[in-house]
Design brief:
Layout lengths: L2 H9 L5 E14 L2 E14 L3 E5 L6 H8 L7 E6 L2 E2 L10 E4 L3 H4 L6 H5 L8 H14 L16 H13 L5 E5 L7 H18 L2 E6 L2 H7 L2 E6 L2 E7 H5 L7 H12 L27
Parallel strand pairs: 3-8, 3-9, 6-7, 7-8
Antiparallel strand pairs: 1-2, 1-4, 4-5, 9-10
This protein binds adenosine-5'-diphosphate and magnesium ion.
Magnesium ion binds next to α2.
């Protein structure tokens, strides 16, 4: 079959997955020889759903997310976005966007925040870009009239909202979040989690969230993948995690037990004061 025909086929309903990872392995060459950071990792996420990737430091989470973002080349295996193999490129693709851990590092301090939000829309006309930036800022609860202000005039929570607005600008199929709340004050973490849930309901992207916090994972995701030393120890729904059909890996069951003992919230978080922009486009900004 010609490549075109293959691509067309991939765009039809035969590919339900926004993102599919098949047998991903990543080796790094070091002085002490090869180091396998990821070993035969496979999963898929459909539109409107979220997978949480949980693991301790050094597990391979960042390497995995960088491979999905097209910033790192896998040693073997495939990354398919909407059924098409991801092309490795410098910078980000429109289809896969990323929300970083620390919003202060993610924004240009010398630029107005509106200009940063519109940055992925370089090919759009000025007027269209302006309109889209206004919509996006309203969507995340930031007053669009402050688009010309620089990052230092905003709180950490507001900056993470702005980073989320920028990631949503090109209407991505996949949104990657690397510890999206761990750099924020506890008081605003719930607001950002709620924001991610509400924008996903509207924008229907597939989410992948990296976190070491099972409560965050449970809040944002339906499915969870435990990674340790580059290997998948568990991959399934939270229902399967709490009521497993086969015996869990001892490391995974230990984490689940600890989470239960510390009574981590399971389910939705408190509304935390965030109100999404109303239908008539009026914005309601949050203070923190
Ligand atoms: N560029 C690199 N070169 C060599 N080794 C690397 C590189 N990036 C990551 N690693 C190694 O791969 C493993 C996984 O790292 P990483 O993906 O950062 O884990 P995590 O994000 O879960 O903490 C670690 O042992 C780390 O030292
Ligand atoms: Mg990491």
């Amino acid at each position: 079959m010609k490549k075109r025909a293959l691509e067309r086929r991939a765009e039809t309903s035969e590919t339900p997955w926004a993102i599919e990872i098949k047998g991903l392995t990543k080796r790094f060459l070091g002085r002490g020889g090869d180091h396998t950071a990821l070993s035969d990792v496979s999963f898929a996420v459909g539109r409107g759903r979220t997978l949480a990737i949980v693991g301790e430091s050094g597990a391979g989470k960042t390497t995995l997310i960088r491979c999905v973002a097209g910033l790192e080349r896998p040693s073997s295996g495939q990354v398919l976005v909407n059924g098409r193999e991801l092309q490795l490129r410098h910078g980000r693709t429109g289809h896969v966007q990323m929300v970083f851990q620390n919003p202060r590092d993610a924004l240009d301090p010398m630029r107005g925040i509106g200009s940063s939000v519109g940055e992925p829309l370089r090919k759009w006309s000025r007027a269209e870009r302006r309109k889209r930036v206004t919509t996006l800022l309203s969507l995340v609860g930031i007053d669009p009239r402050r688009a010309g202000r620089r990052p230092n005039e905003f709180s950490g929570g507001q900056l993470q909202r702005i980073v989320i607005a920028r990631a949503l600008a090109p209407s991505p199929s996949v949104l990657l979040c690397d510890e999206p709340t761990s750099a924020l004050d506890v008081s605003v973490q719930a607001q950002i989690l709620n924001l991610l849930l509400s924008v996903q309901e509207q924008e229907r992207f597939a989410g992948i969230v990296v976190t070491h916090d099972l409560a965050v994972a449970r809040t944002l995701a339906e499915d969870v993948l435990f990674l340790r030393a580059g290997r998948v120890l568990f991959h399934g729904s939270f229902e399967q995690l709490v009521d497993p059909a086969t015996e869990l890996d001892p490391y995974v069951s230990g984490l689940v037990r600890t989470a239960r003992e510390s009574e981590l919230p399971v389910g939705s978080v408190e509304a935390g004061g965030f109100r999404p922009a109303s239908d008539d486009g009026a914005w309601q900004e949050v203070a923190s």
